[in-house]
Specification:
The protein has 3 helices and no strands. With 133 residues, the chain is an all-alpha fold.
């Protein structure tokens, strides 16, 4: 009875095997897609570095900084970021805010000294023009 149960039928095993095969094919496609994207990520910097070297050779640049390797450039960039994070910028921010306030005050003075008289002159000019007309 146990061997003849519907759970143990060859058709049932064949159906399960087909479902497993379909699942496996789908998972393999997904894995291939992921691996391809990772390979592209790893090959892209190398290809970009090769293109940069070819471009430098084409341009015949004498600047040795352009011929640095990607790890060297990455370590330099990381060092710059660390240095920027370590700097105290609050004093520079306060100085910049003071300069902005001074510039706004100066603008107000210029408007008061030149803007208002200019508007008055414009009004007088228009009044004289109307009287002459």
């Amino acid at each position: 009875q146990h061997l003849l149960s519907p759970q143990r039928a060859p058709e049932r095993f064949l159906q399960i095997a087909r479902e497993n095969l379909d699942t496996l094919v789908t998972e393999m496609d997904e894995l291939l897609t992921r691996v391809s994207s990772y390979i592209n990520i790893f090959w892209s910097p190398a290809a970009a570095n090769e293109d940069a070297i070819k471009l430098n050779e084409t341009l015949r640049t004498q600047d040795k900084t352009l011929e640095k390797s990607l790890p060297e450039l990455q370590s330099e960039a990381e060092g710059m970021v660390i240095e920027m994070r370590n700097r105290e910028l609050s004093m520079q921010e306060k100085i910049a805010q003071d300069e902005l306030k001074n510039a706004e005050d100066l603008l107000d003075k210029v408007k008061k000294l030149f803007g208002e008289p200019s508007e008055k002159n414009e009004g007088l000019k228009n009044e004289v023009r109307d009287k002459l007309a």
